[in-house]
Amino acid sequence: MIAFLTFLLVMSFTPGPNTIMAMVSGQQRGFTRSIILNIGMACGMLVLGAVAAVFAQWLQQSPIFITVMKVIGSTYLLYLAYHVATSTPDDSSSQTGGFWTGVLLQLTNVKVYLYFITGLGAFNLPGFWTILPVRLALMVVIGSIGTFAWTAAGQLINGFYHRHFRAVNLAVGALLVFSAVDLWR
User: Fold this and answer.
1) In contact, 118 and 5? CB cutoff 8 Å
2) How far apart are CA 30 and CA 24, in angstroms?
């Protein structure tokens, strides 16, 4: 059980496309206005986790599916990188705050696919934790706590962000580009 929880915490709190977008949303929109993005991410995780639970074995053995998801995911990450890099603190058309942005980000996030495929299939857990919906719910909750934590961190550095938004946006955009490239390693 300790190994499973460690895996969940590491995957949920380390940087990835969803945590980077959550941080940017916290910076640009504040925590409260970013809740809808986080709810979208949680819903995307739930849908993706349910699909992974049903098709985990097939997903693990389908290189074509993984390649298609890499193409879609990297394209979407590059799209988000452009919008983050060119946005300003007062940009009301920011692409970081919507429910569907959160859902789509999760559905194209290869890290989340690996999170569920590994978390649902690679750990032998005792008793109550062998029930798939229980394990899935725990994974969604911990994953969502990770994105909310990054949103809060984004708001905490908001003052710094407003003074140096151009450099921060370029750095975050570069991280999103790196994430897109990293999908192919």
Assistant:
1) no
2) 9
Beta strands per DSSP E along the chain:
none
CB 17 within 8 A of CB 143: no
Q: Scan for tokens 């999760």, then name that residue.
A: 106
DSSP string computed for 122-150:
S----GGGGSHHHHHHHHHHHHHHHHHHH
- Express each pLDDT in 3-38 by its tens digit: 889 989 988 988 788 888 898 889 888 899 999 999
The confidence score (pLDDT) of residue 91 equals 62
Q: Do 25 and 34 form a contact (C-beta atoms < 8 A)? A: yes
Reading the block at residue 35, the tokens are: 């809740």
Tell me if 88 sits within 8 A of 24, measured CB to CB: no
pTM: 0.74
Could you report the per-residue pLDDT of 45-96, keeping only the tens digit for each?
999 999 888 887 676 677 787 788 778 878 877 887 888 788 777 664 455 5
Spatial neighbors of 75 by CB under 8 A, at least 6 apart, are 180
* pLDDT at position 34: 94
